[in-house]
Amino acid sequence: MGRAKEEWLETQERGWDAPEKHVCSKCVDVEFLVDVIDAAVSANTCDYCNQTSDGPIAAPISVLVERVADTVGYYYEEPTAAGVPYDGGFILEPESIFDVLDALGLDCGNPVFEDVAHAFTNDYWVPAAQGHWASSHEHEILQDSWNSFVWVVKHETRFHFMARPNRPSAGPQEIEPGRILGAIGRVVGTLGLVTSFEGGVALYRVRVRAPSDTWLPDSSELSAPPNRRARAGRMNPAGISYLYCALEMSTAIAETVSAPPQHIVVGTFKTARPLTVLNLCKLPPLPSIFDSERRADREWIVFLERFVKSISEPVRKDGSEHIDYVPSQIVCEWFAQVYEPDGKGTKLDGVIYPSAVLPGGKNLVLFPSERSYEYEFDSVIFENAEETDVSTWSDLTTALVS
Fold this sequence. Notes:
single chain, alpha+beta, five-stranded mixed beta sheet, three-stranded antiparallel beta sheet, 13 helices, 13 strands, about 15% strand
């Protein structure tokens, strides 16, 4: 076999053939790909912007094409190879390589973009996971499974979902309702979202005090209510008391005061010891779509971003909130009582989650340290309480930005 034929076969097998050109990192506007180019520079001149230097500043464009092609192959496939049914035409409309690269976010100068596109031996693609048009990527499987779980616990069975198989309409890759919480636990553990929260950190709770109220602004009135009086909340079921705090006073006020005028009591607590918490406010940065080495992390983070949004988004208080809160309540009870971050009996003290009403605000819900007739919360110590008036919208605005 001649060398030319060998090269042709190699090109067909890998699916691309890059031109003999060099590109510098200034011709690409994707941070990860900039680093890829800078790590492989070998020429003193860029063939695209004509920048020249005494030392190497440009890498073979094959380095760029190889990275892009790897990503294209992860998310797309040629229609026939992907198994798309054909009935006078593919039932799934193929996309051009130009549309594919645009969808993936390849941001670069037009000459570079065109050379990358023309390097591919295949012009048309369809979305595909694991090479098949009907398969799903992991973040899609997790999302579909979570959506099914939400529907099941809201509308089908609240207390026996662990024994509930997937619905007939569920996809073949979906995780059963009884197993989705374990899958989420593995994801947050792998991504390192379970962290230590320092002792001595101030936390805040706010209560509105009406003119006719006679209760005293002390620990018993500002701490978690007795379990017999605990109403259903975003994270706790009715009758099971959790301690809701905010990491910022402004967040505590925003979570409690919807409109002035209000007379409020701000209670300050401090963590009595280091806490083990699940921090849903500090997800890792999303890896580049072109970073093949961190593809698994990207799949999990894409799902978690949507998951966190779904359990912390505002809920309309129209009487149906007791249904809308069910999924997050089940999640929290599972993390409180079942999940062991180290697999050796360690339990979580609580969960940090985004405020639904104040962008950037952070809430901390603490689980009871002892579940008995009167729930105990030994993770915090009451410090003091201050009363103040929020008489006008200006007062409220000032409180929320301070």
